[in-house]
Amino acid sequence: MATLGTALGCAHFYCQECIVRFIVSKLQDNVTSVTCPDQGCPGVLDLEYCRPILPYDVFHRWGKALCESVKLRDMGEDQQLEELAKNKNWRRCPSCKYYVERRDGCSYIKCRCGYAFCYNCGVRASLTSHTRHCPSCHK
């Protein structure tokens, strides 16, 4: 028998074979956050804590599934940021890709990375001299 103990935040006991089979069944159901097998227990299994008892292929599959779930979550977050940027009319710096916002003034903007560009079309701007309107887009 193995205790899940502090890795789960609970004190339930299961044999190693049962824990491995439980994890495999959750992975087959595309579940990456594996909770304690005890019904209603809020404890959560940790990949690294389970490493010594997991076969290599199961450990690798669970790790890969966790990475993919993080990527997908980050892509939702990325989509939310892109939607906000679109609604706020923010632009990305052509050099560092950081979002910038122009509130007023001429169409030239200088990013925190030092790159100066036209806020409307993205054309590089001269730091020493420029006109109020961009010669490329005429805005």
From TrEMBL:
Domain RING-type residue range list: 1-139, 93-138
Catalytic reaction list: [E2 ubiquitin-conjugating enzyme]-S-ubiquitinyl-L-cysteine + [acceptor protein]-L-lysine = [E2 ubiquitin-conjugating enzyme]-L-cysteine + [acceptor protein]-N(6)-ubiquitinyl-L-lysine
CDD domains: Rcat_RBR_unk (cd22584)
Gene3D superfamilies: 1.20.120.1750, Zinc/RING finger domain, C3HC4 (zinc finger)
Metabolic or biological pathway, per its Swiss-Prot or TrEMBL entry: Protein modification; protein ubiquitination
Keywords assigned by UniProt, alphabetized: Metal-binding, Repeat, Transferase, Ubl conjugation pathway, Zinc, Zinc-finger
InterPro entries reported for this sequence: E3_UB_ligase_RBR, IBR_dom, TRIAD_supradom, Znf_RING, Znf_RING/FYVE/PHD, Znf_RING_CS
Cofactor: Zn(2+)
EC number of the protein: 2.3.2.31
A Pfam match: IBR
Role of this protein: Might act as an E3 ubiquitin-protein ligase, or as part of E3 complex, which accepts ubiquitin from specific E2 ubiquitin-conjugating enzymes and then transfers it to substrates.
Protein family membership: Belongs to the RBR family. Ariadne subfamily.
Protein name, entry field: RBR-type E3 ubiquitin transferase
